[in-house]
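User: Quick sanity check before I run a bigger batch. Here is a single chain. Can you write out its predicted 3D structure?
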Amino acid sequence: MALPHGPGLNPWQLLKWAKNPMAFYEKNAAHYGDMFTLRFPGVGIIVFVSDPADVQALFQVEHEALEMGDKDFLACIFGGHSLLVREGQTHRRQRRLLMPPFHGARMRTYGPLICRITQQHTTAWQRGRPVVMQEVMQDITLEII
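Assistant: Done. Predicted structure follows.
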């Protein structure tokens, strides 16, 4: 299967992504669509996927059918024990341990907690004052976890 289209190899891409990942992503998504390929010098090839149906399809593919390549870069970001860098039996075992809390009824019980924490963070916002959403979302996520 061929990789999705994306910009060619450019030594500045990694720096641009590191400096402002969302702006870099949005620019490429606007140009190439919901799925595109980036080639980072010294890191390798990363395929970005944002359409929910495509993400769901990826999670339904047998793990062995996906070519992960060198995962050192992901390990540097997420840690060597992250589910994102595990393979084979270890990946399956860790995924089975993580999945029960993220299913239907269990997720619905988290709803009121998520709403309460989000409201606590947003009540301090003032009209006309900028909010850095990435920081807010990180704070909310960490508190929920």
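Residues 74 and 84 are 7 Å apart (CA to CA).

User: Great, the batch can go ahead then.
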